[in-house]
């Protein structure tokens, strides 16, 4: 593949095509209002990245329940009161030429009480003194994801993406370490995948035929097992339950160090799966035009860009103009971020990543 291939349109099973192969990774910015409503800073951020040429713009983790919050100033989609500002985001992204997706999120056992979150573990052994979710509570969370997707459709988003990464609730249920349940949501691989798959099936039933559905999957840490995740992903791709799979890798070049796939790239474990009409993409330190094109060569249909988008919201346009493009090196100064147009709220969030802000 060449860099120019990044700018070929990409069709999906449902809805409109993506104008190019560069998707904005779902980035937490912690700049919303405390009730979960989008702020003026959110609106400005999504306007900037859509105008910057991304094919699809996802919101960062957006709460499907008030009790599922993980951070302060986290964007919400758990109440109809959020709809007016969400409509403004969806409208702004569409005006900029990008597809839009709300990333649906529930913190699970990592619900943060400091911000009104309620820890909701799959297992009673995760936190001392906190009981596992009952079967009925799991079903309530499932339904909250589905209701949030309906709300996103009402707001004008092209679709939603399920946050199934980093130990949040959907990821947590997939883990044999964090999920020791004995009901139909625990035990076998099939049972541990049930929550994710019921959410997918429910959204497909509840939303229109042009509504897109993505799934973000991480495959490291939190007790996750690579071989199991490949099996689950293979079934979801085979059944065409989603439009796109977003592989959230820490490094897109990472090599598997143990198990059945030792010596292979993490990426290849999933790109070699039959995918029918589902599109597969990856994130993970993709900071140059050359590396983005290589990821397509390695079997992906699209790439996801995070840190490069923070540094330059128009990085897709920069790549299109310059096939030798490389993102500015990090760490950067606070003043650099201010001059780039980021809000003080977003900058405060980024200060928590010492490798990013000096």
Automatic annotation (TrEMBL):
Keywords from the named record: Flavoprotein, Oxidoreductase
UniProt-listed CDD domains: OYE_like_FMN_family (cd02803)
Thylakoid keyword on record: no
Pfam entry (one): Oxidored_FMN
A GO MF term: oxidoreductase activity
NADH:flavin oxidoreductase/NADH oxidase N-terminal domain location: 5-321
Highest taxon of the lineage: Bacteria
Protein's name in the database: 2,4-dienoyl-CoA reductase
